[in-house]
């Protein structure tokens, strides 16, 4: 029998000489929470709302759903209704970031393969768009690390089917196009020079 547990912990930073972190008592939530999952996205949308996307549920099914959660006062889960006919393939372990309250995802692992596609979710339109990627793009992979600087994204590493990766890429977003540039490819395993 599969049991369903969805627990939300809220952490507060308190400064009393030293910084301490501790859980608050479990807070009641309203709305239907997402199924329990791992390898999903949990990202801040704005001051009061966060989103959950995708992941792998308890039955090993890869999810493609989106939920909002309000963390102000009453904690409330709301599933997002997505319009349009195009959706990214369900995935886990994808790179993700926000620009102008839009969620971007790249790569990750589907049920059958590793991915290297780029999608954007416009929350206002409630619609996914597959973005064009110009130039050479990074090889398909899951679990890369990313950092953002405005509309420029840096992607490092991840795991392909055969090995861990240690290349560093730069992605510039302009409209519905992402342009990649390889900054450093270092197959010997030493740290890239920045």
Automatic annotation (TrEMBL):
Keywords assigned: Kelch repeat, Repeat, Signal
Signal peptide: 1-16
Pfam families to which the protein is assigned, alphabetical: Kelch_KLHDC2_KLHL20_DRC7 (PF24681)
Superkingdom, natural source: Eukaryota
The name this protein goes by in its record: Uncharacterized protein
């Amino acid at each position: 029998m599969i049991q369903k547990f969805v627990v939300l912990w809220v952490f507060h930073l308190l400064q009393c000489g030293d910084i301490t972190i501790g859980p608050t008592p479990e807070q009641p939530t309203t709305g239907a929470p997402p199924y329990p999952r791992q390898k999903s996205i949990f990202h801040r949308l704005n001051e009061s709302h966060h989103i959950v996307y995708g992941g792998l549920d308890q039955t090993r099914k890869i999810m493609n759903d989106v939920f909002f959660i309000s963390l102000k006062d009453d904690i409330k889960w709301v599933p997002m209704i997505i319009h349009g006919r195009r959706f990214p393939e369900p995935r886990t372990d994808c790179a993700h970031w926000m620009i102008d309250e839009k969620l971007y995802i790249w790569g990750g692992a589907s049920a059958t393969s590793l991915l290297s596609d780029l999608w954007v979710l416009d929350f206002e339109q409630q619609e996914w768009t597959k973005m064009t990627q110009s130039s050479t793009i990074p090889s398909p992979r899951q679990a890369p690390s990313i950092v953002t600087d405005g509309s420029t994204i840096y992607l490092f590493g991840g795991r392909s089917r055969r090995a861990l990766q240690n290349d560093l890429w730069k992605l510039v977003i302009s409209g519905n196009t992402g342009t990649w540039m390889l900054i450093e490819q270092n197959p010997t395993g030493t740290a890239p020079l920045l």
